[in-house]
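Reviewer 2 asked us to include a model.

Predict the structure of this chain.
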Amino acid sequence: MRNLGKILFFILFIPSVMLAEIVATLDYPKITVGEMVTLSLKVSGKDIQRPIIRNICNTNVISSASQTNIEMINGNYTRSKVFSFTFMPQKSCHIDPISLTIDGKQESSNALDLEVGEASQDMNADFVLELDVDKKEVFVGEPFHLQLTFKQKSGAEVVDSKFIAPDLKGFWIKSESKPKQSRDGSYIVTEIDYVLAPQRAGTLEIKPAQMAIASRSHKKDMWGSFIPQIRWRSYFSNGVKVEAKPLPNNAKLVGEFTISSSVDKREVNANEAVNLTIQVEGLGNLEDIESFKPYIDGVSVFDEKAVVKGNTLTQKIALVADHDFVIPPFSIAFYNLQTKRVEKISTEEIAIKVHNANPTQALKIQRETPSQEIQEKKALNTQESFLSLQGSIFTFIAGVFVGVLLMLIKPRVAKKKEKKFHYKDEKQLLIRLLPYKDDPEVQEVIDTIESNLYSQTKKALEKKKIKELVERYNIS
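Predicted model (structure tokens):
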């Protein structure tokens, strides 16, 4: 007991002989892709600079740790520190010496070589990952199934796991199923089904999926004892290549679809919005369908971005006009995989009746009356011109009187209308300003309102300008 006390005394209180040195080691100098490696730096000395290492073998350091050791070498007690850095290299590399400042001097470690072998599938391993497709040759946009299968042997120990999905660059992901589990002999099987569609022609590669598994292992410490630790290892699937062919006859869509259009009402008042909904359903590359926004003379059209959910594309469009109009048919052409030919489908046109048409529109129609009717009106006007001349003097006097009266009344009426009109209701303001969109100032306000209502961009309206326009056109 006395000897033990002396030993502890020497360890804790007697200065030890410090030999400045750095020794670098790897826990596994030979691994396969997907496995983690720990680089350890054993540093001896009194004043030790803590190393800062963020990258090893062109790979980011995943975690780091440190510990203090006390050893007796040739009868001398030395204190050292061990700094550990864990990383996952992708290829073989040479680790250059690492320099640190110890007791005011620059010291360097030894160099190391790390060998990283290519990943390979062991179909009898505790963990197996596979990829399989139902078609290896498809048209651009043609859907196909990709099945991912993960097998785990019953009794295989798993402390933790991380799944890295396959790289699906170049494909539309149409859907992804929920994991389904079953049992196959000594394996527990988990399956995930993807529905994909190629975005472009050519040979497209689906990179291997990866499953990182953490399991328990043991490692000898400096005293020869086994220390339990967590060791990560990655298991890779096979890769898959798919040949995507261009669509025949310059078609842009492939599959089989139906199309429909509907409106919320077929009769509206002037400048009241008609809400149109277009739907395309079917299994195919719906993402390649362009906007259905139509051009209709004299009609303001506001379209929302088409939304694809599952096997349905939906686009909503609002139309505003001050006269009757017709919504034209909408159509799509696609290559039908069943009939092996390009087919075209369309909706029906929809007629919209607009009540209380704008007076300017009525004036336009009146000006387009047949010439014979115009001549008759001119003759009638000639006969009545004399009577009009006699009444002009009376009209002038009455006009002066009415004008003076209006000058006294108009400010009160305008003020009253201004109070009744709430320009904060942007939809109502838009509808009331549309008949005057030829005015550049009105068009500027309309553009701002449309942006606020139908896009992500929001901009405050100028109250002063709106009041001026309301008064200018006597909007109520």
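Residues 252-355 form a domain with the Immunoglobulin-like fold (CATH 2.60.40). The longest helix spans residues 371-420. We have added this to the supplementary material.
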